[in-house]
Amino acid sequence: MFDELLLRAYGLIVKTTVVPQQPGVSSRVFFVKLTDGRRLVVKESNWHANFARDPSAVLEKVYSLAAVIQSSGVPLQAAIKNKNGQFVTKDADRLLVVLDYIEGRTFSGRLEEFAAAGGALGKWHRAGQKVGNVGDIPVDKPYEESRQLYLKDFRSQILAEHHCQLPEVCEMLRRHIDLLDQRLGEIDRTFKSNSPRTVSILHNDFNKENGLYRNDGSFVVFLDVDQLSGGPVVWDLGNTISSLLDSMPKKTSQKNYRLAVEYFLLTYHREFPLLSAEYLLILVAALRWDTMRILRSLRRHHFENNKLPALTRKIKDCLLDRLEKNPQRLSFITLEWLERLLT
Fold first, then answer.
1. 18 strand-pairing partners
2. If you ran DSSP here, which 8-state letter would residue 194 be given?
3. pTM of the entire predicted model
4. pLDDT tens for each residue of 87-123
5. Nearest to residue 196, comparing CAs of 149, 231, 240?
6. pLDDT value at position 23?
7. What is the mean pLDDT of residues 17-33?
8. DSSP 8-56
9. Are strands 27-34 and 79-80 parallel, antiparallel or unpaired?
């Protein structure tokens, strides 16, 4: 499948290629073994193709910035340059990136892994801040734009009876529309009076699938940097903590949620310390991320012929559940708790 391309563009000779049984939502990953025994990953990335004017240029910039972060000692799956000195290779209408193959286990919810993930993200943000201005990396249907559209007239369209390809998702959202409205109000009020100050390069998708760990729980490597961009670090913190907590059993006690976040924040703070006032925004940052995902998935569903339906299904499968439960399971994040924890 990639034999000729890898030989022509990289000078690599393929022995075998393993095609994934379940392709990703916005990318496909293939595992390649070379004749010299090395193993590599070939990633066909379609994320920026969904919205960027020049997807190839954006993806090249993303992997160039990732290489700078990696050079600062952050464990990050390395992309290999082709013969033209580029990270991204065009093949007809596909954008391909060749990456190192790295062994490891995905996140399972152990406390050791929470600690390792927090320290790794702290190192990432510390390294990313040294890079400086990342320039213009577009974000698909950003929060502010989607929120404005929703409040203007999109909400009424969602509530109206309509035929669609995912009726169970739209019906569930109609039943929870008051919850979505409530969270939008909380986000607006909080960030109006408490603007995050610390910015860096964000991973933007550091979840339970996009990091690998050793048997002892220590961190191996970050995966999937396609959504990298600049912004307040608390957005990464909220998004990551919320996602990692989903790996814990549904009947996890509040005490164990608190313990997991303690492990995460203590190691993060050692690597990249923030003021307590910024950590206090973690809950609302998590709500903001999930609200943005809901709104932009609905925009694709209603206005773009149901583009990326697997992401839209997450509204029903997990996003509404997180909007409802995160204020309770993260209610221990108070100023008093943070000051005790971090001093």
1. 31
2. -
3. 0.95
4. 999 998 899 999 999 999 999 999 999 999 999 999 9
5. 231
6. 64
7. 81
8. HHH---EEEEE--SS--SSEEEEEEEETTS-EEEEEEE-TGGGT-SSHH
9. unpaired
Is 217 in contact with 110 (CB distance < 8 Å)? yes
In contact, 287 and 143? CB cutoff 8 Å: no
From CA 334, how far away is CA 343, in angstroms rounded? 14
| Average pLDDT in the chain | 94
Phi, then psi, of 221 in degrees rounded to 5: -165, 150
- CA-closest candidate to residue 333, choices 321, 341, 325: 341
Query: What does the block give as tokens for 139?
Result: 């974000």
Quickly tell me which residue has 């004749």 as its tokens: 35
| C-beta separation of 220 from 75 below 8 A | yes
CATH class of 3-100: alpha beta
SS3 207: coil
Show the tokens assigned to 47.
Answer: 């994320």
- Residue 340 burial (CB < 10 Å; 0-12/13-18/19+)? exposed
Beta strands at 94-100 and 89-91: parallel, antiparallel or unpaired: antiparallel
pLDDT band at 330 (very low <50, low <70, confident <90, very high): very high
Helices (H), 160-281: 167-175, 177-193, 233-245, 254-271, 276-279
In the chain, what are the domain boundaries? 3-100, 111-342
Token reading at 251: 């009947």
Q: What is the pLDDT of residues 175-200, one digit of tens each?
A: 999 999 999 999 999 998 888 889 99
SS3 291: helix
Annotation: CATH topology of 111-342: Aminoglycoside 3'-phosphotransferase; Chain: A, domain 2 (3.90.1200)
In the block, residue with structure tokens 């040294």: 130
CB 209: neighbour CB atoms within 10 A?
Answer: 14
* pLDDT, mean of residues 267-273: 98
pLDDT of residue 22: 64
Please report, for residues 75, 104, 166, 193, 205, the alpha-carbon distance to residue 308 in angstroms, rounded to integers and kept in the order given.
30, 28, 12, 35, 17
Q: In angstroms, rounded to a whole number, what is the distance separating the alpha carbons of residues 252 and 248? A: 7
Q: Terminal CA-to-CA distance of the chain, rounded, Å?
A: 55
